[in-house]
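Re: the 251-residue chain
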Amino acid sequence: MNAMSENSTQVRGPALLGQTVVVIGGSSGIGLETARRVRAEAGQVVLTGRDPERLERAALDVGARSHAAFDAHDPDRLDAFFQSLPTPVDHVMVTAGGPFYAPLAEMDLSAARRYVADHVGLSLEVARHAIKAVRPGGTLLFMGGTSGRRPAIGLSVLGLLTVGLPALTANLALELAPVRVNLIAAGFVDTPLSATLLGDGLDDRRNQLRSTLPIGRVVVPEDVAALAVHVMTNTALTGATFDVDGGQQFT
């Protein structure tokens, strides 16, 4: 057997063995599924979330190393959380928050300002903490979206952040180096949050996407989690935005 055939038969070891991943917003949906994927790759997870009971269930589900229930948009609570981490961690993923949909004529401008401030503020606050909290070569990974790239009524605020987050990610990749900073941009993902937002229209949306997406199916949290772990483990990736929407933006 030559060297090439020997290498091709080697069994890949766990990708995150001995590494710790902090998931901010890890009590459900994409965050929780990423935590499951991390554990499957022999990593340890630290989870945060707003709802103590839901977070407790999630932590038990994945066997989290620890968990902390608080509002990540509260700078003081966020600071206390990062101060409580015993050692530098390997990766931090931020999935907290949801979308903002409102036509301008019906928009609550105070709510819109809070939404933008919360999302930008959280990204900057976590980035500032990541300078000390994440080891060199580790990852700070943000979640964004692709749907706001196409102008539509009701998407003004969402579009603003959709366009802005890749620029923020690229700049932070320079400022935080050698910590790597990346962004995952998802389209519709079949999560509990999507079910809450769509209500009785969920099945119609699923069927529409199955018939129009190039991949012929709906994107699920497992798809995003697989990409998240890849971005964490591929040390050549920084300052980049990775789309995972099944081709939704092309339909």
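The first strand starts at residue 20 and ends at 24.
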